[in-house]
Amino acid sequence: MCFSDKTATWELHGLLSHHGDCGSNKHPAVYTVISTKLKSWMTSTIGKQALSSL
Predict the structure, then answer these.
(1) Between β-strands 9-11 and 2-4, what pairing exists: parallel, antiparallel or unpaired?
(2) β pairing state of 2-4 and 14-16
(3) What is the 3-state secondary structure (H, E, C) of the chain?
(4) Where on the tree of life does the source sit, at the highest rank (predicted)?
(5) Dist CA 17 CA 29 (whole Å)
(6) Contact, 2 vs 9, CB < 8 A?
(7) Residue 51 lies in a domain
(8) Is the pTM of this model over 0.70?
(9) For residue 1, what pLDDT is reported?
(10) Does residue 37 form part of some domain?
(11) Which domain holds residue 37?
(12) Do the domain assignments include residue 53?
């Protein structure tokens, strides 16, 4: 999640694809890029308003 100064909204830029002690020493964070098709599916499934409120 990143806050956009341009639109003054939170934007989803990636999905965490590994968890546990993720991001701590010896446990790097692993993120996945969200493709346009996946973003379209998410918008049609849960709605644009729900995505923008994250």
Answers:
(1) antiparallel
(2) unpaired
(3) CEEECCCCEEECCEEECCCCCCCECCECCCEEECCHHHHHHHHHHHCHHHHHCC
(4) Eukaryota
(5) 8
(6) no
(7) no
(8) no
(9) 67
(10) yes
(11) 2-46
(12) no
